[in-house]
Amino acid sequence: MARNYVRTITDMERYYYGAGNAMGYSYSGSELLKSDSPMLSTTAGTYQAIYGRKVWSQLNQEFNAFSILPKKPWDRSGWRVITGKPSDASTGSSLGGVAENSTLPDTQRPTFQHIAAKPKTIAHTFDMSETAIFLADKDDGMGDIRSVLKEEMGKHHAESVNKMLLDDVDNPAGNNFESLDRITAAHNDDADSKTGLDADHDALTASSDLDIYSIGREANRLWANAEMSNNIVSDTATDRVLSLDVLDDLFQRLWVRGGNPKVILTGYDTLMRLQQLLQSQQRFMEEKRVTPTYNGVKGVPGIEAGFIVATYNGVPIIPSKDVQKDTISRMYLLDTDYLHFSTAIPTQYFESGIETGDPFAINRLGQEGLYRTMGEIWTTFFGAQGQVRDLK
């Protein structure tokens, strides 16, 4: 032990500095009983993580529904529609046949109606203090905090519009933009209707919730109804299994009304369910990788109407996370020849405050930003739009 060999300071140095074996001593440093106090990364006051200026978003902020809509300038606040043909007779001489040397038939005309809509304004603001702006560029700050917030709030603004466009039919738009779920809806007072909604159904609180623009949907359902495939059983919306028959039936009804779908909008879950339905047909189809696009928005890459669905009936399928769900997401078949976003004022960004030399405008030492969009979604032909709901 150490007490048998440490006689002088030299012995102690040899003991502690490991010279024991070389000098003929039989002891080693491991024989020393000691209490360590190491410096660890968890030692208070000795380590601080540097987070850096890069901010990694953990959110999906896609806005595909808004992106696929054609954008047109707002040049008027109303439009006229023809709601009835000159003659509804389907047989007989009233179709226009006249007897020899007979008098001319009575004159006829179609039925006209006005539709009016007002632009709506959507705004999102954010602000930051002068101190926060200063410190963000010092120490371990985010750097240009104005640019970070400007970028993220721009995404939030577009995503919020996307959610408005995909809100449920039973939520009147109010100050928000109208929704595709409301545009593609239909009124039907049949208790067991599979082609529309009514206040007696649990899917609709009041028949007036279907009213849109200046139109009372219940009174004008013969022409203001879209083509809707739903499933009401004993006044209760009942989900049914998605089948190709359901989808093909809606395509046929839209073609009969005069529509021709240009894009199918649905959720990722329904897209996968459609893939499963078509999987058995894969062997009969050409397998090529495609990425469907519509109005600049890319869909899910896949095999066209095969293992991964890209199109159906030649119509591109675009998914969005915000599509309303029953058990699985609804499907909207949209004819964008008659559907667009009417833009009164395009999305603009404004900023004011201490950094731009005008703190009096916001009455504080800070900076405030604003995104604003003004417009409304329009359809000029309800019969060309359709939806499938109550799916599982």
C-alpha end-to-end distance: 80 Å
**Topology order in helix (H) and strand (E) letters:** HHEEEEHHHHEEEHEHEEEEEEEEHEE
Q: Would you report the number of β strands?
A: 18
Largest sheet: 6 strands, mixed
What would you call the shape? elongated
**Average pLDDT value?**
80
CA gyration radius, whole angstroms: 35 Å
**Regions with little confidence, pLDDT below 50 for 5+ residues:** 89-93, 283-288, 304-309
Percent of residues in beta strands: 15-25%
Which class best fits the helix and strand makeup? alpha+beta
- Spatial ordering of strands, largest sheet: 5-18-15-8-14-13
Helix content: 10-25%
DSSP helical segment count: 9
What brief labels describe this structure?
9 helices; four-stranded mixed beta sheet; 392 residues; six-stranded mixed beta sheet; 18 strands; elongated; 20% helix
Note down, in words, how this protein is organized:
There is one protein chain. The chain has 392 residues and is α+β, with helices and mostly antiparallel strands. It is built from nine helices and 18 strands. A six-stranded mixed sheet has the order 5-18-15-8-14-13. The protein is elongated and about 145 Å long. It starts with 8 loop residues before the first helix and ends with a strand.
Compact overview of the structure:
The protein is built from nine helices and 18 strands. With 392 residues, it is of the alpha+beta class. The chain has a six-stranded mixed beta sheet.
List the helices and strands and how they pair.
Layout: H1 9-16, H2 64-68, E1 71-73, E2 78-84, E3 111-116, E4 120-129, H3 130-136, H4 145-165, H5 180-183, H6 221-224, E5 227-229, E6 232-233, E7 236-237, H7 244-257, E8 263-266, H8 268-278, E9 289-290, E10 293-294, E11 297-298, E12 302-303, E13 311-312, E14 315-319, E15 331-334, E16 339-353, H9 359-362, E17 366-379, E18 386-388
Parallel strand pairs: 1-16, 5-18, 8-14
Antiparallel strand pairs: 2-3, 4-17, 6-7, 8-15, 9-12, 10-11, 13-14, 15-18, 16-17
